[in-house]
Amino acid sequence: MSETIFMGGGGAGYADPQVLLLDKANRHGLIAGATGTGKTVTLQIMAEGFSAQGVPVFLSDVKGDLSGLAVSGSSDFKLHEPFMSRAETIGLDLQYDQFPVTFWDLFGEKGHPVRATVAEMGPLLLSRLMDLTEVQEGVLNVAFRVADEEGLPLLDLKDLQALLVWVGQNAKDLSLRYGNVASSSVGAIQRQLLVLENQGGAALFGEPALDLADMMRTRDGRGEINILAADQLMGSPRLYATFLLWLLSELFEELPEVGNPDKPKLVFFFDEAHLLFDDAPKALVDKVEQVARLIRSKGVGIYFVTQNPADIPDDVLGQLGNRVQHALRAFTAKDRKELKTAAETYRDNPSFDTAAAIQEVGTGEAVTSFLDRKGIPMVVERTLIRPPSSQLGPIDAQTRKAIMQASDMAGKYDETLDRDSAFEMLGKRAEAAAKAAEEAEAEEERLEQEEREFKQARRYERGSSRSSSRSRSSRKSSGGGFGGALASVVAKELKGTTGRRLVRGILGSLFKGR
Question: Is-contact 101 130, C-beta < 8 A?
Fold first, then answer.
């Protein structure tokens, strides 16, 4: 069964192997069930199966339990005997084993840092992340358009903040080109950026950005299992969901078409999938549906993990061909309706009632349906899920640290790069504009001073002429009286130092003015 993943035993006595075909694994899937029914263990054994077949895996570890994939299970484990009993029941030769694991963490604490640039995230996902209105999203699109036209790289949050300041300052001109760019909308986006920053969102944005090739590696023929530490990230559920959607979008945009491969290039588990769709705008849901429909031709399988299939929009749910349905509870009329709807999505098995089985299966048991060789869903089966080969439960901090230090990724993403981008470029523009404004202001003051000096010189000139006329008139009328004496004093003073300064000032102003 080298081309299958053994999931457990079904049918009478749980003796019939239930397998997931590798060449149908990129047709996506669903793991659903109420809390405590075994979803995490199912995710763990699927990750093991894909890794063993050389398929890289990405998954988010919401509770910290999945770190156990990095170390082998043990006969000392308290569930060893029940595991061996179950393995015997379903015909499995259980061998404990460990798997190649790389730990990632947006905050760089429990894994290697993982980042994206603001430009890569794009206005649609950022609008979702910040819960912007349609009008605010429009302004954000204008900002991104301006960044492209002005050659302003958007790498981190301070780049976007600086760009929004520039947009606000030039809102009038931008409104003529792109429609109304209201200052109030710019201010609202800036406030939401502050909220995002306070939630730790700044850690997501920057360089070096994640190289997707680092998540698609194999080691000694086994696929690398990339585990995103999400226990702290879940404190900001919108940030969590947006990051995973960005990662899916990047895979969709960058990977080449491969048609129908013998096995996936990567399998992506989206845990707590309801967070992606809660209150999501139609444009975003349409994008998810598009990615899910087209990304399988690029060799990527997406598996949504959630409590209830009703959490997934119908257009997306209809594309999930491989399903593991753990127990659902039906306490209310709404629960019973959702249970009935979930049961109706399976091919009936005449041996049992599907809706009743979904209610009755115990922990570690599930109702399953996988695609057959022709890509058609098989009839539903009650399945006893196989036990994991790796450790069930989390590893300790010391073991995690040792694995991180030994990883090929150690050091590659640890140091943040801060090259010139929109923040620095707009800062330099602002400095240049301020310097030009100062020079213009100084030149204006100089010209105003020259004009004042010129006017003063003209007044002196006119005053001197009038004084000479009065002197001549006084001499004629009064001879050597008081007026003659005053004229004599003025004439003497003009011949002295004060007079020379005054004439020099008058002539200098006149020559400068001319």
Answer: no
